[in-house]
Fold these 2 entries.
Entry 1:
Amino acid sequence: MSIVLVGLNHKTAPIEVRERLAFTDEASVASLRMLVDGEIIREGLVVSTCNRVEILAATGPQHVAEAAARLSGFLSEARDVPREVFSKHLYTHADEAAVRHLFRVASSLDSMVVGEPQVLGQVRRAYTTAVGAGTAGRVLHRLVHHALRVAKRVRTETGVASSAVSISFTAVELGRKIFGSLKGSTVLLIGAGEMAELSAKHLARAGASRILVSNRTYRAAVELANKFGEAAAVDYSQLTAHLAEADIVICSTAAGEYVITPEMAAEARESRRNRPAFFIDISVPRNVDPAVGSLDNLFVFDIDDLEAVIASNIREREHEAQRAELIVESEVMQFQQTLRDLDIGPTLGALREKLQSIALEEMKRQRQRLGNLTPEQEKAIEALLMSTVNKISHPVIHRLRRSYDTGEEDNVQAWRDIFHLDD
Amino acid sequence: MKPFLYAALAAYVVAAIHSVLAFVNKRRLTERVSLLALVAGFVAHTAALVADWVGDGHYPLFHLHETISFLAWTLVIAYGVAVYRYGVQRAFSVFTLPLVAWLVFISNFLRGSASLLPSRVIGGEAAWLFPVHTTLLLFAYASFFVAFAASVMYLLQERELKLKTFSAIFHRLPSLSTVDEIGTGAASVGFTLLTLGIITGVVWSSSRNGRMWHNDPIEIFALLTWILYLALIHYRAQWRGRKAAWLSVAGFALVLCTFIGAMLMGGYHVFG
């Protein structure tokens, strides 16, 4: 059995092309049913996300080239897009390369942001859709499940997905680094702004239990506070007092001067009995005097600092991706073995069964001559027969495997004929 | 008994190697191997101590090799408590287990030169206090080691957070507040044990020859250590964070002086 993959992604095709070829779930169900003919294309599935459109098919080893051609033709027909529009963006992988590609996609090594978690769910959904359409059989079943397993391994054994690559998650991650758990912590939001809100939301989801909102105009603070469940608007003129309550302070005002001075921060710190505080300053010009950061137990990160952390996290992910590639490589080898067993397995099983049934048949025929036997003796005779059969069939099976591995299909067929396995 | 200590050494070496590997590759499996080997090592180590106690007829904490072996044993316990309470196996293993393996190795190496116990230790009304005194102190030192390790982790991370550049180690250490908590907790436990250890020592000494203080280097260092940790605990809130961590490092340096000083300078507190 061979696997063929045809597709394009964010690296090979511009968004204008990708969007024209994208499939909805319903569209892919209908098209897949048309695509799979049981002859050339035996199984098929479509992975369609905003970054990629890929069609994966199982076919016979002799049909690889034809299957690839069909898949690109299918893409054109199903989405009603002339082939010239996308053919130069298209890549085709067969067998090992196709398996490797799918494993890399599922492990998020082929993503725009390496390690992003969505693609795994998208692969899983593509499979469910294909199962629903009845176009995923035993080959794709094994392949996708193996891909999900590889993705899990990559996730747990490497750091490709372990570090934050957005402002809000970086804030959460740094908060965790300082406070351990964010459970029960208090967040003070000064000013409004999309990024600040998003960060506060992520912090709340990570366990921060109280959100205080402060704004130069009280009414704006109340409005913003209403957006969060557990938030309270606080008086802007009492900022120092509220600073003392806050473990994490997010600043994003349009003020032209520093809103938080070292004096304020030091005073707040004293009434917090020196417990650490984390200042996230995402405003430009900055709202938190950088001198605050030189005070003990106070940690200040401005927008540039956060961006720098993200940049280094991305580098770290790319570095970890190299380790992930090794995992993928070894799993590809393993899957090739699985695929082989899937092909040669039935032959081996049939052979064993055939020989065993001959032995059991003979035993049944000669049973009366043996007279009365205890159940133990009967079992012993059976075991003896089975082990004899296995010993005799062992070299044959060994030969069969080797013939298959070296692609001598005639030899495999010869053995099948000898033992009448096809009758 | 020697075979037990050899077995303990072998298991500790395995645990130490795997702790370093786990720190680097962050694999759960490696971490688990390290933990299992450590538990096996600890059981063998405990058996070795008990066998020594029964076999030699004295509490296995007198000669230098015994002290070192016992210290390693207390380190494993202190480490175990920290890991159990705070779930910080990965980082603390890499600090502790290589040291434990090394100490047990040295202890094995130094064995054989053991002489009989001097009568000054065996005799006296309150003779039973002597092993209590030494045991308490070794547990105190082990706690101070945990506090020291936590403080080093604190300082490393605090520095990186201030500089905003993060090394590979940064992501492998527990959070600032966790190591801060462990540091203060371990220092408090250590201080309590140190206090009790000093008291039992003083009582034992005075019951033996009527003198409570001998101007011995180990006594002076112990007193300094005691004062330093007293200050650390008393000013816990004011010095929270970096200052407390540095103090804890200094405290541990004093502990080392106590230990090494005693060996080098001789005096009343001589091992063996």
Entry 2:
Amino acid sequence: MSNKVEKINIKAALTLATTTLLGCHNLAQAETAETDTWEFDTAFLVYSEVDRVNAGEAILNAKKTFDDDKILNLKLTVDALTGASANGAVAQPTVQTFTRPSGNGQYQIKAGDIPLDDTFHDTRVQFNGQWTQPIASNLTASGGVHISKEYDYLSLGVNGNFSVDFDRKNSTISAGFSYFQDTFTPEGGIPKPLASMLIGDSSAPTWDDEFIKTRIGTEDDKTTTDILLGFTQVINRRMLMQFNYSYSIVDGYLNDPFKVVSIVEGSNENNSGVTQDVIYESRPDSRVKQSIYAQSMYHFDSTVLDISYRYMWDDWKINSHTIDSRFRIPMGDSLGKESYLQPHFRFYQQSAADFYRPFLIDDNTLPTFVSADYRIGEMTAFTVGLKYGMLINNGNELAFRLEYYRQTSTDAGFNKFGALNDVELYPTIDAIIAQVTYSF
Amino acid sequence: MSKRDFKLACLPDGYSIIFNAMASPCEILIQSKDLSLVNKIAITLTQEIWRIEDKYNRYDKHSVCSLINNRAGQSVDIDEETYLLLNFAEQCYQLSEGLFDISSGVLRKAWFFDGSDNLPSNAKVFEALKLVGWRKIKFDQQQVTLADKMEIDFGGIGKEYAVDRAIILAKQITNEPVLVNLGGDLAVTRARLNNEAWHVAIERPSLDSKLTDTTKQDMIISLKQGALATSGDARRFLLKDGKRYGHILNAKTGWPIDNAPRSITVVAPQCIQAGILATLSLLQGMNAEKFLTEQEIKFWVRR
């Protein structure tokens, strides 16, 4: 034991002695987690709304664990979106003509149809990087960046999070923040809120000059600041509870530049319910959202039930309830190695923003804020789905998910009259979501 | 739970098999929801672990170990397994230049590490030391002969050996990830599914030297392959005139190793290797970290 050469030989000699004792000839090397391996998750998702938006999404997630549980996570998401989306105008018993958001050309909507803008297509590339590391025995810190780019949209974000474990890691308290800066540069510029959509001969020499009068600039931006507080508690070996509270302030340009509102003749007029004008929507330039969230995971003898509930409210007077549940049923090796089935059910309900109007009436003065975007109207949605997973190739997980989504916009108490009685005001959206994931 | 029984606990992605063996709480984790497989693993592995306990427990008067000790001075027939273990003990004795000696257990007759200041007399230690000495043990593949009144004790290697044997059996039965943990000495058959590491909580004795201190903080270690073993026990020591006498005894002098760490945890391909490396490094006293660094292995030292 007196010099280094002998000491290094101890390990080799012990390996030999162990081999003799245990009768195993090719001893595996011990390997702790800080080996230089990356773990990858890949996913491909197709989202298809009936007659509307179709989206394809590919995700590559790479995770590397370094010494002392430091974790680097990199995620790349690419989405491609095509199809049509409701522009906010009401359906009419006659053909309607709308100008494209770019100002280049017009499109016509058949009588009785909900107006859809079919120029909806975009490709989004999104990158997220996150670094997580323990900074004291029970304290973990995490920080990340976010970049997302579309043709007419750029989003930059940073986030930070601290979490403290106590009670032998049975309890965790976390606090996080994130900050996003988003810039819109829609083709054709930013429409002037409440300005009338210019409709007419887009090849006329005066068109461009007239169109520009409905614009207030080429770009605008918004910032989002989120604060998240969380508490996770292991109740016992079978049960885990999580509670979150989030506070979010959004400031800046909150309109959707592609959404408009119809102004119709009042109920006592001759052409009651017939569109007189179409104006660009106008939303407040700030929004404060809060939400509370509770989740519980319970492991039965073999199955796992995961239920969560979220209540969100904001100063636009939107509030929403979300109930989400998953039930994981192991199937043993009956449907593939270590296979499982996981039914999914989600229910969502929201009330309308206080400035939501499906349409405006001609003789009223224009409100400061108005939007007919169904996404901030009253609605109910549910998702039912099934995920099926198994292990292939030495423990890598392959999973398939198929879901059906139905969103029903409902009447928040607005009277229909005249021409509006003959058309559908509140669209229903049906969508199919299919996803394949593979982890290796 | 009776002494020779196990119970199953459900985990999100598998089962935990909980039982007692070798005076320790033990656990086998299997990342599979196949109950028939889990039961097979539970029965096969616990039977093997209890078999080894019965065979080499010096406190069990029917054990092979007791048989050898009770017949010190005479030759005792042994089987191949016992021969291999004695052979392994011989290697460890040589590698440690006599510091590690499975016949040194009789020194316990002189030393009681109860936290008091009751050091034994030199005479008492010397008396006990006369019965220590691997060189006085003769063995071959058929027989072993201890000198009169000598005793051997497989306590320093038995638990780790049982971990390794259980891992070998688990690998024969299944490819699913299995972890065997016998009172903190543990090994895994492979990484968890998707090449994830096992996260193992190791009891970390408080750095506070007060005997009354019972707060323990777990240390989480990630392990993808191989084994991990801990030697030392921070709660077993004597304290006299400000000097601390840990329970790690030098088999050559009969006295505690000076400046030995309170405990050492080592990662190695096999549990028995990890255990011996941890023990050998404890025996290096203040040079423990240097010794471990030179072995180029992953380790944690608590002083």
